[in-house]
Design goal:
Elements lengths: L13 E3 L6 E3 L3 E6 L5 E4 L7 E6 L2 H10 L1 H6 L5 H16 L1
Antiparallel strand pairs: 1-2, 3-4, 3-5
Helix pairs in contact: 1-3
Amino acid sequence: MAGNKGPHIKKIPMRQCTGCGERKEKKELIRIIRTPEEEIQVDFTGKKNGRGAYICNSVECLKLAQKRKALDRSLKLAIPTEVYEELAKEMNHGEDG
């Protein structure tokens, strides 16, 4: 058969961290979404419905994203400081469990 070049190599989805700007595998990053109800949530499954942005699982990247307003731009929504604090807590909690 023409065009068959051996076993199919699965494409690894890559995403860019909104904090540090590094491209990493999707599974290495945390997805933060804006739900249709305009709430901001951490999506550890990567499957929730809503507009998503990706960030490294580090509070440093979250702080960088906050400073640069990168998440605000990605999610097209002004994000209050309390939400960043809650995200930082959830990220730390997600690492434990």
